[in-house]
Sequence to fold (250 residues):
Amino acid sequence: MKIKTGHKIFTTFLLLLLLAHFSPATTNANSIQPQQGVTIDQAVLNEISTTGTSTYWIEFDNNVDLSPAYFMNWSDRGWFVYKTLKDHADKTQSQAIAYLQKTGSLYESYWLSNRILVIDSNLTTLSASLQFNNVASITAPKEYSLHQTESNEIATEITTVGSNIAQVQAPEAWALGIDGSGIVVANIDTGVRYTHDALVATYRGNNGDGTFTHDYNWFNPGNLDDNVPRDGHNPGHGTHTMGTMVGDDG
Fold:
């Protein structure tokens, strides 16, 4: 009897051991325990409890000293900031990336903000994410809604004159019948995007049938690569100044 009892106890113990081995470490989203100091959005827990998966950000420690950049020239400063942030992200994210790659998890790494977007993560991966080194928090992605725009009819007739126009006494010139018709003006700037809605109608190279003749209608002192007028500056300073001169918002 003692032998049978001992065998029964051993069998029961072995069965419990096997069950413990094959049971998942975390079976409920609300039972996972992040390491001290790490926070997790409730929205992430709610989603994974409901659907079994969740997409979330792993936010890492982002305490980087960039103060030396203030004493560098512009070129060195940019490279210093890039290299410092990139090296910091590579170091702090290395453990997480190794795990995500090993488990075949979908993710996107961002060095600038030092965080990783984990896509359609299961509960096991979420639980592991809370234990990675240098993790600060787990946050849910945010959605931003764009305001609906309404198109308004722009009056074709000018009823008021801006103070800047009045100060150069343009209304007095108009009263004399001088409105600039037939006068060609140009600017020497970063170029002009002649297809701009406010400029294309007054471009001298516009043939009026959807085609354009650029010969003798633009000058290319900056040796831009294109064979047609364009603005070599972003966001387009030359286009802006040309718009000030002849732009038609209507």
User: Anything to note?
Assistant: The longest helix spans residues 74-102. The two ends are 102 Å apart (CA to CA). The longest strand covers residues 54-60.
